[in-house]
Structure formats: structure tokens, C-alpha cells
Write a structure and sequence with these properties.
Helix content is 78%, strand content 0%. By secondary structure, it is an all-alpha fold. It has one domain. Helix 1 (8-22) crosses helix 2, helix 2 packs across helix 7 and helix 3 crosses helix 6 (105-124).
Length: 158
């Protein structure tokens, strides 16, 4: 349920999505998708290192919480987000329940891990989350330089 490794498939899927949605060049989309995945992996690996875990039930609760907020129109752009989700559900050819309870589960697992890590770092580091998150990313880059460069090579980045 928790992906703490680089994924070419995730990279390509996200790069393609943001290239289409934002009108980016392939290079810009690749750079952005790489940055997002790198940051996410840095946070997830830090959470794992300090013993944070998330149960399937916690991830399902978060999924249902967000689903309700969107369905009830409580989010600022709820109708646009729901329209985008419905489009994605159609493209995936799955049911709405499958989308929320299976397809998105790893995303919500990561979201809950991030929330727990933010709380942990607020308690233990004494600095703001933004500062601490930047430190976590820098530490990850320094310790995983070989793996990062290997992944960049696999996805065609310099």
C-alpha cells in the first residue's frame, strides 16, 4: 500500500497528465513530475524511518472524508474536482466506489502518512513544517543520490 520507491509508471502517468492539463512541454512535465515524486518519496521514507505507519482503515477513512467534502460541495472547487474525478473514473472504466476504495487508496495512505509526519516533526524538530520538509528533502537527495540519478537516467532526464 505504501510506495517508497521511484516508479517509472507513476512518473509517466503524472507527467502526461500535467502536460495535457497545464500545456507544458514534455521536458517541463518530466521535470515537474520528477520533483513531485522526489518530494513525496523523501517524506514517505522519513515517515517510515521514524516508525509512522498507516492502516488500510485510516486510509479508507481519509478517502471517505474527502469524498464527502467534495460531494457536499464543501471544498472551494468541489464541482470542478468531482467532474474531473468522474472523467477519470470513466477513463479507468471502474465504479465510483472502486475509485475511492481501491484506486486512490495508496494516495490517501501517503496523505495520512504526511499528516502524521507533520505532527511528529512539529513535536520533535522545533522548526516550521516547511523548513523541516525542505531539510528532509535535502537529506533524502544527499543519501539517495545514486538511486535518484539512476531513476533520472531511466526516465530520460539528465
Amino acid at each position: 500500500m505504501v510506495n517508497s520507491e521511484f516508479s517509472i509508471e507513476d512518473h509517466e502517468e503524472y507527467a502526461e497528465k500535467i502536460q495535457d492539463e497545464r500545456g507544458l512541454t514534455k521536458e517541463e512535465a518530466d521535470e515537474e513530475a520528477f520533483r513531485v515524486q522526489l518530494n513525496e518519496l523523501a517524506v514517505i521514507n522519513r515517515a517510515i524511518a521514524v516508525g509512522i505507519s498507516v492502516s488500510e482503515e485510516e486510509a479508507l477513512r481519509k478517502s471517505q472524508e474527502i469524498r464527502e467534502v467534495l460531494k457536499n460541495g464543501e471544498a472551494k472547487n468541489a464541482s470542478e474536482v468531482m467532474a474531473s474525478i468522474q472523467k477519470e473514473i470513466g477513463q479507468l472504466e471502474i465504479s465510483e466506489d472502486e475509485y475511492w476504495n481501491e484506486y486512490m487508496l495508496s494516495n490517501y495512505t501517503h496523505m495520512v502518512m504526511r499528516e502524521k509526519l507533520m505532527e511528529y516533526e512539529r513535536t520533535h524538530s522545533g522548526i516550521s513544517w516547511n523548513e523541516r520538509q525542505q531539510e528532509i528533502i535535502e537529506e533524502f537527495i544527499a543519501s539517495e543520490k545514486r538511486r535518484i540519478n539512476e531513476f533520472k537516467r531511466k526516465i530520460g532526464m539528465k
